[in-house]
Amino acid sequence: MAGIVKNDGILIMHNNQLEIFIQKIPKAELHVHIEGTLEPELMFRLAERNGIKLKYPSVDELRSAYKFHNLQSFLDVYYEGTKVLITEQDFYDLTWSYLKKRHLENILHAEIFFDPQIHTSRGVKFETIVNGITRALHKGEERFNLSSKLIMCFLRHLSEKSALKTLEESISCRDKIIGIGIDSAELGNPPSKFTEVFKRAISLGYLPVAHAGEEGPPEYIWEAIDKLKVLRVDHGVRCLEDKLLVKELIKRKIPLTICPLSNIKLGVFKSMKEHNLKKLLNEGLIITINSDDPAYFGGYINENFLEMALALDLSKEEIHIIAKNSFEASFLEQKQKNKMIDIFRAAI
Ligand code: HPA
Ligand code: ZN
Q1: Residue nearest to atom 7 of ligand 1 (CA)
Q2: Residue 91 contacts by C-beta under 8 Å, 6 or more apart in sequence?
Q3: Which residues contact ligand 1 via a Cβ below 6 A?
Q4: Distance 343 CA to ligand 1 centre (A)
Q5: Which ligand is in closest contact with the Cα of 74?
Q6: What is the mean pLDDT of the chain?
Q7: Which residues are the active-site residues?
Q8: What pLDDT does residue 77 have?
């Protein structure tokens, strides 16, 4: 066990020893939606700045509305919150507020999703979003040596035509975006719906990932790897229902970006103890731990590590493997990967 002893469920040794252990491990975050890092305090500040009236009168009342029972119940609240993001400065402030705290968690590298269609559908220009985010990413690099990459997600509840239009809009910012993904409501919106847009994106040099197997069945993961040719699966926890799929993910070395607190808050698992992360690890899958939408799910990356370690009795070695995987599974160039893995090795 990771520096803790439990007796009849009562923690005898200090959780904060484990907390410090996790904090000190250099790591990469590969699954975080920038819009999902919008904390209520900043949401209120931006609403005031842009003259927007929020549905809730106070930060506390807004937070108390963060009770979700599935993905859609979360998405409804999440999309509502994004309405305060209008100017380049708003996207900059959002991203900067994520970065300035993340380096304290010992994150060396972050691959950050954004959902352009949420904003362009409200009249915000594609460049406004990307310029605001990347200005903050550059500052993060300069100020904290925090490396980062940007991944554009298509909303899967919208049409492939809309995704194709967004892809074309993105070309003017091609050098600022490393990859593409799909997110939003999974059930009823299988990855195969986006086969053509992924083909075109890959031909433009974008690296493909996809949310699959969060709420959706293993067939959606098959479609993501076979039809969309993804290099990583976001979530993917339902792969365990299909032995052949697990074998294939291992054979093709396709990592999963797992988000434990998200999975509990959205009812994918009833409790942390029932999470299948350890089983996935034991199967030999390349798994990573991430925060998804930390402002909504009650914790950033280190809290996700901590809650998983406590609930599943992860060993120090297992925690180290998961953290090292985050560099291996990243879209960093090999030279940068090696450099970060060296930093990781020196720190442990
Ligand atoms: N799943 C699907 N879409 C999302 C998520 C998620 O966890 N977070 C933000 N958009
Ligand atoms: Zn996600």
Answers
A1: 292
A2: 34, 85, 128, 129, 131, 132, 133, 136
A3: 33, 36, 71, 78, 183-184, 211, 214, 262, 292-293
A4: 31
A5: 1
A6: 95
A7: 214
A8: 95
Determine if the pTM surpasses 0.85: yes
Q: Report how far residue 71's alpha carbon sits from residue 35's, in angstroms, rounded to the nearest whole number.
A: 15
Query: Is the C-alpha dihedral spanning 21, 26, 32, 37 positive or negative?
Result: positive
Q: pLDDT band at residue 101, thresholds of 50, 70 and 90?
A: confident
Domains present along the chain, CATH in parentheses: 9-347 (3.20.20.140)
Q: What is the predicted pLDDT for the residue at 191?
A: 98
Write the DSSP assignment of 92-139 as a string of letters. Answer: HHHHHHHHHHHGGGTEEEEEEEE-HHHHHTTT--HHHHHHHHHHHHHH
Angle formed by the axes of helices 316-328 and 334-347, to 10°?
160
Q: How many CA atoms lie within 13 A of 244 on its CB side?
A: 3
Position in ligand 1 atom list of the atom nearest CA 262? 7
The greatest distance separating any two alpha carbons of the chain, rounded to the nearest whole angstrom, comes to: 58
Give pLDDT, residue 1. 39
Using the mean position of ligand 1's atoms as its centre, give its distance from the Cα of residue 338 in Å. Answer: 30
According to the model, what pLDDT value does residue 4 have? 43
Average pLDDT over residues 73-82: 96
